[in-house]
Write a structure and sequence with these properties.
The chain has five helices and no strands. By secondary structure, the chain is mostly helical. It is flat and about 85 Å long. The relative contact order is 0.06.
Length: about 140
């Protein structure tokens, strides 16, 4: 928890630096504004470094729970809550009906579609393909 105090301190110091930068901007003094911006950048870098150390600390302990928390933080994984099981009494019947459709015997004979006599298959030359692709990519 020691690192939590450090992070909170850095967060509040970054807020103070933001306020100082905004004040310097409103004052119109370019030199003060430049210095305030530089100090804000340094404060943000320090806060990020502190946060990085806190996350790395999860992996340096022998506590697997903290390690997984660190992984979830790094990957931005939000564990999903399992939805409660359905209490609808018709659910088993619906599932049986859904899966039973695969067990039904199909007595229809597969037939091949017949094409009209004047049907010509599509043929393209490599030049046609290149022209079509170049028109599509632009």
């Amino acid at each position: 928890m020691d690192s939590q105090i450090d992070i909170d301190a850095y967060t509040s110091s970054v807020r103070q630096l933001l306020k100082a930068r905004d004040t310097a901007f409103r004052s119109g003094d370019a030199q003060d504004y430049r210095l305030a911006r530089a100090e804000l950048k340094r404060g943000i870098k320090r806060a990020k470094h502190c946060h990085k150390l806190k996350i790395e600390e999860h992996f340096n302990t022998s506590d697997p729970r903290r390690m997984w928390q660190g992984l979830q933080t790094i990957t931005d994984l939000k564990p999903t809550r399992a939805s409660p099981p359905s209490t609808d009494p018709s659910l088993p019947d619906e599932l049986n009906y859904f899966y039973a459709r695969f067990d039904r015997v199909n007595h229809k004979v597969a037939t091949r579609a017949t094409l009209p006599a004047d049907h010509l298959p599509l043929t393209l030359s490599p030049t046609d393909v290149r022209a079509e692709l170049s028109r599509t990519n632009t």
